[in-house]
Amino acid sequence: MPAPLTEEQNRLDREALLDAAEELFYERGIQAVGMDAVRGASGLPLKRIYRFFAAKEDLVVAVLRRRDQHWRGDLAAHVEQVADPHERVLAVFDWLAEWFAQPGFRGCAWVNAHGELGPSSEAVLTEVRSHKRAFHDQVATWVHATGTPVTEPVFLLAEGAIVTAGISGDPAPARHARAAAATLLGAS
After folding, report:
1. Which pTM was predicted?
2. pLDDT tens digits for range 28-72
């Protein structure tokens, strides 16, 4: 009889599973990836995978939730290095440009998930909306510090740049959105 799994081994296996699923879902699309592909990429047996997540939808939600923490955390770490409030807002677009230029960039994971599952999965739709609210709140905090009432346009510029870069495969939308945001911040 095999030895019982430790908490640490469970944590490591769960992280490996989330890593594999996130990579596959982002690269290929959620519906195109079966649980056998997740099993193969994670190296975990299906029985173990289903102990962590009873359904694929649960795995998708966990992937999106964890990605949100990493994505917004990385963004905040970049932006909050900048002291000047106006430049801090513009740093959002600099970070986006770096992200857009990364190999394998396929646009917004939450927009992609919404396009695939939003109409049919309340749990995925809830997670997508949660991410978008949290990103909006981050942007709002940084814009508010400038004293200019342009949160909504700046947020929409960031969202538009993300979607446009995801479709075009070109990081230039971040630069264009940054220039527009600079105009808004200077004009208000």
Report:
1. 0.93
2. 999 999 999 999 999 999 999 999 999 999 999 999 999 999 999
Say how far apart CA 142 and CA 80 lie, in whole Å.
9
Query: Quick count: other Cβ atoms within 10 Å of Cβ 122?
Result: 11
Q: Write out pLDDT tens, residues 92-121.
A: 999 999 999 999 999 999 999 999 998 899
Q: How many CB atoms lie within 10 A of CB 17?
A: 23
What letter represents residue 144's amino acid? H
DSSP the chain: -PPPPPHHHHHHHHHHHHHHHHHHHHHH-TTT--HHHHHHHHT--HHHHHHH-SSHHHHHHHHHHHHHHHHHHHHHHHHTT--SHHHHHHHHHHHHHHHHTSTT--S-HHHHHHHHHTTT-HHHHHHHHHHHHHHHHHHHHHHHTTT-S-HHHHHHHHHHHHHHHHHH--SHHHHHHHHHHHHHHHH-
Contact predicate 115/109, CB 8 Å: no
